[in-house]
Amino acid sequence: MRESVSYAIHDGIAVVTIDSPPVNAMDQTMRAGLKKTFIALRGQSEVKAIVLACVGKTFVAGADIKEFDTGIAEPGYHEVLRLIEDSAVPVVAAVHGTALGGGVEITLACHYRVAHAGARFGLPELSLGIIPGAGGTQRLPRAVALEVALDMMLTGKPLAAGKALEAGLVDAVTEGEIVPAAIGFARELVQKGAGPRRTREQAVKGAAQAGELLTAKRAQMAKTMRNRLAPLALIDAVQAAVTLDFDQGLQVESSLSAQLEQATEARALRHLFYAEREVRKIPGLARDIAPRAVARVGIVGSGTMGGGIAMCCVNAAIPVTLVDATQQNLERGLATIRKNYQRSVERGSLKAEQMEQRLALITPSLDFGALAQADLIIEAVFENLTLKKEIFAKLDAVAKPGAILGTNTSTLDIDEIAAVTRRPQDVIGLHFFSPANVMQLLEIVQAGRTAPDVVVTALELAKRIKKTGVVAKVCYGFIGNRMMDPYGREAERCVLEGATPAEVDSALEQWGMAMGILAVYDMAGVDIGHLTRLERAHLLPKDPSFYRPSAMLCERGWIGQKAGRGYYRYDGAERNRTPDPEVIAMLADEARRLDIPQRHPDATEIQQRCLYAMINEGALLLEEGIALRASDIDVVYTAGYGFPRYRGGPMFYADTLGLKTVYEGILAFQKTLDPQYWQPAPLLKKLALSGSSFAQWQAEQTK
Ligand code: CAA
Known about the structure:
The chain contains 30 helices and 19 strands. The chain has three domains: 5-261, 2-enoyl-CoA Hydratase, Chain A, domain 1, CATH 3.90.226; 297-474, NAD(P)-binding Rossmann-like Domain (Rossmann fold), CATH 3.40.50; 481-701, N-(1-d-carboxylethyl)-l-norvaline Dehydrogenase, domain 2, CATH 1.10.1040.50. It is an alpha/beta fold. Helix 13 crosses helix 14 (327-347) and helix 19 packs antiparallel against helix 25 (603-624). The protein binds acetoacetyl-coenzyme A.
């Protein structure tokens, strides 16, 4: 096996170099290499100090995440880090790029830290459902103030080199080359006769105020990180740092880590870590297909969607031509973009001059001809097939050869849209989520004739504008909205069966959804889904209760937050949602009229009905080939639909329940509820009866 650690001695300073592409993750080979190296250096009397550095784009980006699935092999983190810390001569970490997780923990085992000005130090373990497990919970509060340490570990937000210097995490920052700077620093230590400064021998900084701080953080985590294990375990570990000696504290950290690593929460979050990287690899697409160059983007429609997409592009320094039909629309659109940026400036997350630079990258125009220079044109007008077809015919006339034509439809048939052009190979769906400048997900819809390099370009664009791009094929609603349909159907049906809107939403929120679906409808506008259903009425079930509550609200003009009322009332300055007795009475009357039995579904039933219906639809999408992988569905739902990451996405969640449980649940609902909706997807049935899982099925498909 290739060695990933080597060393060379320059005039009394040993430089230990880690080289393990792509991100220097600390796997078993690296740990073994560090162990061998630090043992070898122990016996060399000419070595007066040691510099620990990495080659490649970054310092160590943490533990090798894959090892958590298989178990950590010997030598363990503690053994290796203790060897480094025990060195009799000073050890200086030379940090560039992103020192993450175990990467920060190695630097804490070193005696001194020198950072490149662009370096960042982060502890993202909570986002993986674990806590720093290589001594980080014990050493960090000894290196920086307890409050800073807790903040770094609870938020996962990396500290830039300058801030790390202020916090005392690093001793020096250099604008120049990192290794020579660290060697210079080490030489000065030797000249001064400074010996090792072991973090474990320091006292916790701010231990006197720890009680109050930890209690406050515990309360905050219980509220903001509901249903999670790792945040509270992290606070327990830090409490151990405050109350116990270093070695006892380390034992507490180890035992908490061992429990967390195999818990469903951590398995779910690891699953998403892999899944979010897997989405870029499209089965059947050669890895060497080059993306088309995108130097300028054209956008048609300057409403909420078009404006948000324009912001995504200019945030990534891609110039935009923004076209709309009227001057008034354009002005309104630009004013909204400016207002959004202004808010970031007021919050301090953007400088005023950056705002101006970004706005200057947008060229507004009333003329479709202005799109002739664009390499990619994204249509973002009202969701109406006839209108979109008209626009695509016009785009076909003005766009340059090879330009990509994207449609931001959320449901429509992209093959039909592509068919009005002479270049269906250049047409693709680019489904952004509102607000586009904030939401993480980009559904990339490959139509029947979309060329492979157009798909690759869309994936590349997603990365450039910092979105998670997931490829889907054409069907009504693609992955996300198609699965929302049965989920929402059950929520709507539950309110006709006597659960109140607040009961339905709170059941879903308690389970972990960011927002209950009925409150989501109110936020997005109840009319949006309703209008789509009216257009597709001929394709929908002939069931009079199907999405009836939404229809009734629309008939009354109670279309959600924008009208001040929908499923809830939004009164007062705060516009908080409050139950609306009139809506509850309206639903009860309608249930009587439709002769719907009042089952009063409880929270568990509401959760199961909504989620099983969603999972079943997901299984259909896999069979139809609309979604390429079960894990892609999980990425869509966690990145775009407020599905709790710690449950891994709907398909992973189904696997954790066991597909037999889901299948049998659906059969039970078939008996007690409307059987037309409760037909198990053939794939779900097959996997459930053979004791398999979506993950196993996916592994077999991609073998
Ligand atoms: N372990 C294993 N593989 C990793 C990895 C890790 N820690 N970090 C990245 N990789 C892999 C990715 O899976 C990817 O593989 P493929 O090319 O096969 O898909 C490859 O490295 C490149 O990664 P990215 O595509 O993410 O590259 P990027 O340049 O966009 O981002 C990064 C680089 C910021 C380091 C990002 O990869 C990242 O955030 N990694 C995770 C860091 C992390 O969470 N570290 C903490 C680990 S837990 C820990 O350390 C616990 C402990 O206490 C010991």
